[in-house]
Write a structure and sequence with these properties.
By secondary structure, chain A is mainly alpha-helical. Helix content of chain A is 64%, strand content 2%. Chain B folds into 2 domains: 16-178, no CATH class; 197-331, no CATH class. Chain B has helices at residues 17-39, 42-64, 69-74, 77-88, 96-111, 123-134, 155-164, 173-176, 181-191, 195-200, 208-226, 232-251, 259-264, 268-275, 286-306, 313-330, 344-349. Classes of the chains: A mainly alpha, B mainly alpha.
């Protein structure tokens, strides 16, 4: 299969085909763990590493795996990677590990990972697969962290509170209080807040895309010297 | 001789959205006056703030969505959303409570779903529930009814309290506030004790909540007479409350409140007449309306008895809003001359 250009892959993962905003995959961790920025960063990094390693391994073994058994094999690979990450987090980021709880092992069931293994890594060379895993993980992680920051800001009025769980003792006073406690909106921390926040992010992406498309149409029309018939839409 | 032949409908009723909404607005007046009479000027301040905020939020969203202003801002539906929300709020609420609730109701629950006619959930109830789960402390600032002889505020004092949180000198907040009947019952239910006493408290002090409910009932009767609502939903909902409450009370009268307490102790009458009958979010078939109303009544009592919040009417209405498409699908009336449901056959064919 023809290998795609790296810039296209990057644009796909980060924006055009963003796993969270366009494919809307992996909603369970996305909505459950995005209540604080630090939790979101922790899960974003764990998911990113899982995607990179599992894409790489699946790409390496793609010529030896028979199509009939490919899915169980992929799941085994992903589960092994997640287990390694879980053990590492348990050893080095224990309090974050306790906060994230069940959602670390649940990375195995995150649809993005199996989707990229099946849809991309199983038919592309090693380097491309690793790069795809990285940009897809980054695209997912950025949405996760944005949502986490939004919800923490509105719900707790802080940003990066509890950063020492992830970055060690030097990060003890990274957390800043931006809104006073009496101005916080508890709904943002609850499941409805997660859904509304994600919905607003998806709407934001759509609005930006429509704006870009409209500009491009107007520019094309201006070049060809014709009035843009659908410039209003 | 030639007769002019006209096509149906031959009898016309005033049935534009604005006409129906005007009827509802007038029907809200007796209940609101009674609430101001019984609970103080805070109610009026809440209504003004919520209606104003809802109207402005609607205008802002229409501008953002590039929709025409006139039809949506003059059909008065947004005024009702704000008004109904305000009547659910505590009478000693700070000013931002009705404002946040009304803005959320209009922006998220109404306009983001596509404006009037498209919203899945009753906007006023969404606003109320959002406030209830987000600001549990502010939502408990209920002042004692004036009839109980507790201290009361003048309009200026109530306004001052709402805007700045300042009470007139020498007055403590605790002197004004009091647990609502459902709150009292809930405490007894969760901490053990005599429910009969808590239930009876509602009949003391002149039974003020009875007067409030009668005023709402009067407004509802007028809406029924004007044809703005139909009887199915209110009647079914009240029957649902009575059936479920009687059932629980019959099982264990020590633990569960009696049916009459459930009927007048909270928002059942108000919800049945003014909220559940919202034409956009309620079921549209006659049988469906009965199911819809009955479901709200049953759920409201269940949530009151076993849930985390004192009153369950708002949650019950939202839950049944969610079930409306299903109810409508299974209760389509048969087309005259056919057997079975209308639409079922066609859908299989397509």
């Amino acid at each position: 299969m023809a290998e795609p250009r790296l810039s296209e892959l990057a644009l796909d993962g980060l924006w055009k085909n963003n796993p969270a905003l366009v494919q809307v995959l992996g909603l369970c961790p996305l909505l459950a763990i995005s209540n604080t920025t630090v939790n979101a960063i922790g899960l974003a990094i764990a998911t990113l590493v899982t995607l990179v390693v599992s894409n790489g391994v699946v790409s390496l073994i793609r010529d030896w795996v028979r199509p009939e058994v490919r899915l169980p094999v992929y799941v085994m690979v992903i589960a092994s990677v997640v287990t390694i990450i879980e053990l590492i987090m348990n050893a080095h980021f224990h309090s974050l590990y306790n906060t994230l709880g069940i959602f670390i092992p649940l990375i195995v069931t995150n649809c993005i990972i199996i989707a990229r293994a099946e849809g991309f890594a199983s038919r592309h060379a090693f380097g491309f697969s690793v790069f795809d895993g990285f940009v897809m993980g980054a695209g997912f992680g950025l949405v996760l962290i944005t949502l986490g920051a939004m919800r923490e800001l509105i719900g707790f009025g802080t940003l990066l509170a509890g950063a020492e769980q992830l970055f060690g003792p030097m990060a003890v006073d990274w957390g800043v209080r931006i809104l006073p406690e009496r101005m916080t909106f508890l709904l943002a921390l609850m499941p409805p807040g997660a859904f509304i926040g994600l919905g607003l992010l998806v709407a934001f992406k759509q609005a930006v895309d429509q704006r870009t498309a409209r500009r491009a149409r107007a520019a094309r029309a201006a070049r060809s010297g014709e009035p843009a018939a659908d410039a209003v839409g | 001789m030639k007769f002019p032949v006209q096509t149906s409908p031959h009898v016309e009723a005033p049935s534009s959205v604005a006409d129906v909404m005007t009827t509802v607005l007038w029907a809200l007046v007796p209940g609101t006056v009674a609430a101001i009479w019984l609970l103080g000027w805070g109610v009026l301040i809440n209504v003004l703030l919520a209606v104003g905020a809802a109207w402005l939020a609607e205008a802002l969203m229409l501008w953002l969505r590039a929709r025409p202003f006139r039809p949506a801002l003059t059909d008065r539906s947004v005024l009702i959303t704000g008004w109904i929300l305000a009547l659910c709020l505590p009478n000693l609420a700070p000013w931002w409570l009705p404002v946040v609730g009304a803005v959320f109701a209009v922006v998220v629950a109404k306009q983001l779903y596509g404006g009037i006619g498209y919203n899945l959930f009753n906007p006023a109830m969404v606003g109320y529930v959002v406030l209830l789960v987000s600001f549990p402390e502010a939502m408990t600032r209920w002042g004692a009814p004036i009839e109980d002889g507790a201290a009361s505020l003048s309009f200026a004092e109530a306004l001052q309290w709402s805007l700045f949180g300042v009470l007139p000198g020498g007055m403590a907040f605790d002197a004004l506030s009091q647990a609502t009947p459902l709150d009292q019952w809930r405490m007894v239910l969760t901490q053990g004790g005599e429910v009969a006493g808590a239930g009876a408290s509602i009949w003391q002090g002149g039974g003020w909540s009875l007067w409030l409910n009668l005023a709402f009932l009067a407004g509802g009767a007028w809406m029924l007479w004007r044809g703005a609502i139909r009887w199915h939903i209110p009647v079914a909902m009240i029957v649902g409350v009575l059936v479920m409450a009687t059932l629980l009370w019959g099982i264990d009268p020590e633990r569960f409140a009696d049916p009459l307490f459930h009927l007048v102790g909270g928002g059942v009458i108000f919800g049945a007449l003014f909220v559940a009958t919202d034409p956009v979010t309620a079921s549209t078939t006659p049988r469906g309306r009965l199911v819809f109303g009955f479901g709200i009544g049953v759920l409201a009592v269940l949530i009151r008895s076993f849930g985390n919040y004192p009153d369950g009417v708002a949650f019950a209405i939202l839950l049944m809003n969610l079930a409306v498409p299903l109810i409508d699908y299974y209760t389509q009336p048969a087309v005259f001359g056919r057997k079975g449901r209308a639409g079922a056959g066609e859908e299989k064919g397509s």
